[in-house]
Amino acid sequence: MEFKPLFLLIEDNLIDQIVTQQLLKKVFHVEEIIIANNGKEGIEWLQDNKTNRPFIILLDIQMPIMNGYEFLEEFHKLSEEIKDEVQIYVLSSTLDSAEIAFIKENQYVIDLFSKPFPVEEFKNRFLTLF
Taking residues 43-68, what's their average pLDDT? Predict the structure, then answer.
């Protein structure tokens, strides 16, 4: 049986949402990808939905209402039960070295990928974790 991870895409840009969904469906053969339009919606989804399988968050940084940095601060406050089931990958087009350092040093972030989403690189990186 093929492993099909559950994805939560936290991204405010509609075009990036559509492109990332299509890439994930093609490469991972997933039927459903949960979309949150900002970090606040992502935190609320995590608090409201219990899943019995590990899942992956693809997190944008620059978003209205609650950006990716604020999401990571709120994520830290969640229960260990929730945090233990999650892998966070940041998707960003930033070139700011301070932002990149912050992301890479965050204890919850597995990796940082540049936009547009390099799905094959992600798949190779993801599969090495299992």
Answer: 86
Give the class (CATH, top level) of 6-127.
alpha beta
- 9 Cβ contact partners less than 8 Å away, ≥ 6 residues apart: 17, 20, 21, 24, 33, 34, 35, 36, 57, 58
- What are the structure tokens assigned to 21, written together? 């969904």
Residue type for position 44: E
Diameter over CA atoms, the chain:
42
Instruction: Copy the structure tokens of residue 46.
Output: 């995590």
Tokens of 99: 């932002």
| Nearest C-alpha neighbor of 86 from the set 125, 42, 124 | 42
Are the CB atoms for 29 and 77 separated by under 8 Å?
A: no
17-45 mean pLDDT: 90
Neighbours of 98 (CB within 10 A): 8
Q: Where are the chain's structural domains? A: 6-127
Closest CA to 21 of 92, 31, 12, 113: 31
pLDDT, average across residues 50-67: 84
